[in-house]
């Protein structure tokens, strides 16, 4: 477990030189699987977003020390996705670029790596985030076909071989075949969260995102940009991954899978395409760039739980973060909680006695869709913008992975 905390602004309101700040937080719209981004690989989404964000911030390439991006799914003929990103973004040869693969927490781990580099004074300005293309993941069908017959029956909740293969590739500790949906079902049973409660939470998540979309809440955080090598728009502000109320209502009647009687396609997150990026720097660099920080990374914890107790990972991590920072549920204004299935959000709110109106206020992963390698960064982007928009200060992002890792990070917005 890592716990690191900063010291805020100094008495004059100037960023402390040795603290770590975020000066920009942006994301693409989220595309549904085989939707608006189906023709673009993860590296194109990531590179295009970074280029658009750098232009918006007025930051030149010579100021970049490192780039860390999360990505879980890659095509079988790509040996090093970081090289693709580096070339597509046209970074200088002197800028090291890295791809991190830590399942759902990949982009949050990228942010932690950038944070540590700045704290250790080996970098002053780091680009951190995540990118994912579920649409262009070619290994899924092969993984699915190579699974045993008993396991194929377990993931029958997904209605196409491609989606079933994605479960094997993204949600399973392959080849051990520990599927987190099945573990989620056990979690729901232990916490006594029935199907109705999960469907209600799913609908609440979707309704919040639709309201935010209609109120144009996401406009500041979404960047529409041109491809960095071709003069064409590869992203629009229309977020395909939002499921409408009319299309979701029939899903509430979905017949459950025999091994997951309460977790269905209506109350779990769907695979998606997208990217998110955060521009992280020291207080010293913030002053040099003449950029006022929009947020500070206050601290974080990393914990590990049993593979058969995945659902409790976020609860454990948030509790440890509370103790480390001397915070409690009443001192935190907003939470962005990873929501692979609705039971997870319900259980966390119950276990920690969190006011539901402070959690995923513009919708969770069920509503946004899950571009796996980018979701953690997307959640941080969403949290920062929501805190600033509502005039609030303190927030927590939490995430877990099928490998048993859980992370909770504290953010202070300005």
From TrEMBL:
Membrane-spanning intervals of the chain: none
SUPFAM superfamilies to which the protein is assigned, alphabetical: Thiolase-like
CDD domains: thiolase
Record domain Thiolase C-terminal: where: 292-412
Entry's Gene Ontology molecular function annotations: acyltransferase activity, transferring groups other than amino-acyl groups
Domain Thiolase N-terminal: residue ranges: 20-282
Keyword ATP-binding: no
Keywords carried by this UniProt record: Acyltransferase, Transferase
One Pfam family linked to the record: Thiolase_N
Family annotation (PANTHER family): ACETYL-COA ACETYLTRANSFERASE, CYTOSOLIC, ACETYL-COA C-ACYLTRANSFERASE
Membership in a protein family: Belongs to the thiolase-like superfamily. Thiolase family.
Protein known as: Acetyl-CoA acetyltransferase
Annotated source species: Ignelater luminosus
């Amino acid at each position: 477990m890592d716990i690191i905390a900063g010291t805020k602004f100094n008495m004059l309101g100037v960023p402390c030189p040795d603290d770590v700040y975020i000066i920009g937080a942006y994301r693409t719209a989220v595309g549904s699987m085989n939707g608006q981004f189906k023709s673009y690989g993860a590296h194109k989404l990531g590179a295009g977003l970074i280029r658009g964000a750098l232009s918006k911030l007025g930051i030149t390439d010579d100021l970049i020390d490192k780039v860390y991006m999360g990505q879980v799914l890659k095509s079988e003929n790509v040996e090093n996705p970081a090289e693709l990103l580096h070339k597509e973004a046209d970074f200088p040869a002197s800028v090291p670029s890295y791809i991190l693969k830590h399942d759902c927490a990949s982009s949050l781990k990228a942010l932690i790596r950038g944070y540590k580099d700045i704290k250790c004074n080996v970098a002053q300005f780091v680009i951190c985030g995540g990118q994912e293309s579920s649409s262009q993941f070619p290994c899924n069908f092969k993984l699915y076909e190579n699974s045993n017959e008993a396991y194929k029956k377990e993931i029958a909740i997904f209605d196409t071989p491609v989606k079933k293969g994605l479960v094997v590739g993204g949600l399973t500790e392959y080849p051990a075949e520990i599927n987190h949906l099945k573990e989620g079902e056990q979690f729901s049973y232990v916490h006594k969260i029935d199907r109705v409660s999960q469907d209600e939470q799913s609908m609440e998540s979707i309704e919040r995102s639709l309201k935010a979309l209609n109120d144009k809440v996401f406009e500041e955080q979404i960047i529409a940009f041109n491809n960095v090598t071709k003069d064409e728009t590869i992203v629009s502000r229309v977020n395909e991954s939002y499921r409408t109320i009319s299309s979701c209502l029939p899903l509430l009647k979905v017949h459950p899978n025999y091994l997951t009687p309460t977790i269905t396609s209506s109350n779990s997150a769907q695979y998606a395409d997208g990217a998110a990026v955060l521009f992280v720097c020291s207080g010293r660099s913030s002053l040099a760039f003449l950029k006022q920080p929009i947020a500070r990374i206050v601290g974080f914890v990393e914990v590990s739980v049993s593979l058969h107790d995945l659902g409790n990972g976020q609860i454990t991590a948030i509790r440890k973060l509370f103790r480390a920072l001397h915070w409690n549920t009443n001192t935190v204004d907003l939470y962005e909680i990873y929501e692979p299935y609705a039971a997870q959000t319900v259980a966390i709110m119950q276990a920690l006695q969190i006011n539901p109106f402070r959690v995923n206020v513009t919708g969770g992963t069920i509503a946004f869709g899950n571009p796996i390698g980018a979701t953690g960064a997307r959640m941080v982007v969403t949290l920062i913008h929501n805190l600033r928009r509502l005039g609030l200060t303190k927030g927590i992002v939490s995430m877990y992975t099928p490998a048993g890792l859980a992370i909770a990070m504290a953010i202070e917005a300005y």
